[in-house]
Amino acid sequence: MTQQNDRGGWWDRLRAKLNGGSTVDPEGNAARPRGEGPRDDTGGTDGGADKAEARRKLEEWAASCERPAWRPVVADDGESTAISRFGGAPWLPDGESVPRCETCGRELQLFVQLELSSLPAGNSTAKREGVLQLFYCRGGTGSGKHDECWGEGGWEPFSTEVKLARVVPETGLGQVSPDSGGEPPWPAKVIASWERFVDRPHPEDHAAAGLRTTYDFQSRTVLLEVDVVGVAERFGIDELPVEQIAMAVEGDKLAGWPCWIQGAEYPCCSVCGDTMEVIFQVDSVDHVPYMFGDAGIGHISICNSHPDVVAFGWACG
Ligand SMILES: [Zn+2]
Ligand SMILES: [Zn+2]
Fold first, then answer.
1. Cys-Cys link to 260, which of 51, 92, 204, 251 (CB 3.0-4.6 A)?
2. Residue 255 covered by a domain
């Protein structure tokens, strides 16, 4: 959460595209149609009232897209028996030992564990049963402590190289201490409560949510259109950046809208092929002391028809 301003990824690609578009003029002139005077992208005198109305409608659209999301509020482990937590020793089915990394053979660290039935009401995951678990290998370069694990496919949603993402039945689960010969687990952070907030779609999800953006790189303008609120207005690209209209929140969170670093990467269920639902966002060095690549953000997804199909993918800039 401390590297918000360093997050290149999505922003950089858009800015590069825009800047690239502004320098294609073979004569090196500013990116303005020849013969036109300076454009007024400020909204001050050119269609100001229309733009104000368009802004109001765009805000109406953004508000209509809001989804509830919840930030975990954590406490030190202490004597807590709460299942939902970050880090610590995992809860495992009877007779199972701590899962190991397919690549380096070390025990995987429990990153996130959520008791699905106890999640906040209003979230679709609240209808689910079982315990969601994300295990990941600390041996990769991300931890900064090891470099002995050469698995590089951890970012792929269904790769099992260096991780295990699953839902296990709650019945019969017990907390299991890791192998005493291995590295001790991270100190657990118990999720004591959830703090609700409203989240808005990341620009990568704007189109699917109904906002069409048509960029004109020559004039450095963007046409913003939302049919449901009846808006179609052209703005200067720096006058109303789409991320100002709606943007998903970074950090660890339940539900809401995913904050993408690259494109929108909703996995498809390996059984039915349907788009999976992102239910939990795991950010770098928020509640888990681990960096996914260069300040990457990960997402745990579940299929609504096949609750046993769980994916965890991440991307960095
Ligand atoms: Zn490993
Ligand atoms: Zn499915």
1. 204
2. yes
